[in-house]
Amino acid sequence: MDETQGELIVPAQVAYLDEAQAFIDDKLTAAGFSTKSKIKIAIAVEEIFVNIATYAYAPASGDVRILFSFTPAGAAAITFIDSGVPYDPLTKPDPDVTLQADARGVGGLGIYMVKKSMDDMRYAYLNGQNRLTLIKGTD
After folding, report:
1. How far apart are CA 3 and CA 76, in angstroms?
2. Domains of the chain and any CATH numbers
C-alpha cells in the first residue's frame, strides 16, 4: 500500500477510538484536508466506531478493520469492516428532527448526522462482514 492508503485493525472497543482517529487524521493532514472537513470526518468516525464497538458483537467481542484510501476525485474513503451482526444503517428511517428531543424515538440521530455530513455513504454485507464506507472531500 502506498502512503495515500492504509489499513488499521483494532479490537472493536471504545478504548481504541483514539487510535482509529489518529490513523485517519494523519492521512487527512498529509493530504491537506481542511480543518472543517477533518472535524466532520472525525465526528463521523467516532459515531461509526462507537456504534460498532457497542453493538456489532455484543455481548461477545471482535475486531474492526478500517481501510483508508482516496477516490479518483480526491475525496477520502473510509471503510469500516466488522464481522458482527448484519446491520445496514442506511436503511433506517431518519429521525424527525422537527420534533422536540423528548418527542422523538430513541436512536438514529448519530447516523443521521453522519449521513448529513458526508458526501456519500455506502453499505454492503459481503462474506459475513458489514462494510460501511464514508466518503468526504475537503471543504
Report:
1. 13
2. 6-136 (3.30.565.10)
Averaged confidence pLDDT in the chain: 88
E strands along 14-127, which residues?
63-70, 76-82, 120-126
Rounded Cα distance between 92 and 44, Å, is 17
Query: Cell 466532520 identifies what position?
Result: 40
Can you name the residues that pair with 131 across neighbouring β-strands?
81, 124
Q: Which three cell numbers stand for residue 37?
A: 472537513
Listing from the earlier edge strand, what are the strands of the sheet with 76-82?
6-11, 63-70, 76-82, 129-136, 120-126
Residue 5 vs residues 26, 58, 77, 99, 124: alpha-carbon distances, Å: 11, 30, 9, 41, 20
Q: What is the pTM of this model?
A: 0.89
Residue with cell 467481542: 61
